[in-house]
Amino acid sequence: MDIRTLTASVSVSPQINPEDVQTLKDQGFRSIICNRPDGEGSDQPLFDEIAEAAKRVGLETRYVPITSGKVHDDDTRTFAEALNALPGPTLAYCRSGTRSATLWSLAKADTMTVADILAATKSAGYDMGGVVRRIANGGATPTDRADASYDVVIVGAGAAGIAAASSLLSRKSDLDIAIIDPADVHYYQPGWTMVGGGIFDAPDTAKTMGSLIPRGVHWIKAAVAAFEPSDDAVILDGCRVIKYKRLIVCPGLKLDWHAVDGLVATLGKNGVTSNYRYDLAPYTWELVREMKEGRAIFTQPPMPIKCAGAPQKAMYLSGDAWRRRGVLKDIDIQFNNAGGVLFGVKDYVPALEKYVERYNANVNFFHNLVAVDGAAKKAWFDVSKPDAPVERVEMDFDMMHVCPPQVAPDFIRVSPLADDAGWVDVDQATLRHETFENIWSIGDVMNAPNAKTAAAARIQAPIVAANLIADIDGKAPVAQYNGYGSCPLTVERGKIILAEFGYGGAMLPSFPKFLVDGTRPSRTAWFLKERMLPPIYWKAMLRGREWMAKPEKISVS
């Protein structure tokens, strides 16, 4: 038998035989649903044979036959009624399991999210892309028409999405563009490190979304449920269908707070904070200001994460604040990094190591945060050193700054756009989708091997805009991405190590070495971070003014 689990209470399988029923009983199943009509195949046992075998071992059964390829709304209701009436766990079967998986997907459409349903069926080996509109419509068959259609649809109104829209309009002002995003507020997330360090005020990092969407661009204030790239359609929650000629996917990534046991319950109290959330960054500074002694833990999860330097930025700024107040000698700083290096580009490591020594911080590699008890002020880490068994260690803390694990959003990971790891699958030079030629992706959600930073999105947006316009004109891609990313490492108040790099760790400095030497702490770089980058973000990047971000043309050999 090929039993595939959808949930703890429902599994599906291809055709079973009467002799399989005892095994199902032994595995804990209490009921069986047959979704295959009798007589569909010459080697197929009748449902009555299955039912008789089930009766002998005490299993209940239901016969809900479905003609292949014809799952009607009434069939879904009948299947749901059977599931509700039968004791679980339940096994549903048909010829291959697909009809049973489809019925379950539609029956659960009003109680589970589209992403959760698609994830469960995908994990079981079933593709529900053909019924995704029905799932989004609560399981019922929707009308087969688009609610709206645009030249370009952009999923996500973060830094990447708004910058892409503005860059497109600067090249072709008559484009009919729509941005899909349910958020009311747009955040300048690179500023949150400075909020946590007592330099910026949190409200200065936020603006209303409506004030930033470029004039003439349609803002569809809704969440995406799924993609139908074969039909050039985006399905929204509630089953609205948005059609496109070309699509840019840039919804950012998901902060997976729930991946750490106990973390959600203690965030914002018990000394547990994170600069990765707007409302918590001020709490970071409050804790730093009030701390006079004790242990402060700073965590970094496995890659990829947005702004890989942010976890240690928090440590450096906190250490500098304690040094200035004269209490550093009484504070035990622990930097627990799930990875094996301080920073991924080796050229910047020596200067960073000097600051680790300056703040007398202990760097613990291969330490991944897995659980927190905030009230008890305890944290647990899995230590996964090379060629050694995983060891779980417990650490007490007085303050802990957490960087959460990060993954692609659920609706991306289960979509046809994703690679095996769940990220949007693109060509790393043109940022065009590897399978669907009218789709591009930028920002944190795509799988190019670059750092996930706002600076990367600032460079990517004009590249995709140029290549998309070239595609409209019937031309090949005209611009290429070299993997540029930037991480201004705030090593102390007033000084920054400006890390700029591309694919393979190649250094890509924007300024002459005499002005800013990225391998050394610099006051000039601090001035750039504190005074220049916020207005560049708000007034240039988001408005299509490509200062220091002109696309690199593809060289023709």
Automatic annotation (TrEMBL):
Q: What cofactors does this protein use?
A: FAD
- Which GO molecular function terms does the record list? FAD binding; hydrolase activity; quinone binding; sulfide:quinone oxidoreductase activity
UniProt KW Repressor keyword: no
Any matching Pfam family: Pyr_redox_2
Which keywords does UniProt give here? FAD, Flavoprotein, Oxidoreductase, Quinone, Transit peptide
Q: InterPro entries of this UniProt entry?
A: BLH_phosphatase-like, FAD/NAD-bd_sf, FAD/NAD-binding_dom, Prot-tyrosine_phosphatase-like, Sulphide_quinone_reductase
**Record-level GO BP terms:** sulfide oxidation, using sulfide:quinone oxidoreductase
Q: Where is the FAD/NAD(P)-binding domain?
A: 150-263
Quote the SUPFAM superfamilies the UniProt record gives: (Phosphotyrosine protein) phosphatases II, FAD/NAD(P)-binding domain
Top-rank taxon, per record = Bacteria
Q: Where does the Beta-lactamase hydrolase-like protein phosphatase-like domain start and stop, copy by copy?
A: 2-109
The identity of this protein, by name, is Oxidoreductase (Flavoprotein)
Q: Which organism is it from?
A: Litoreibacter arenae DSM 19593
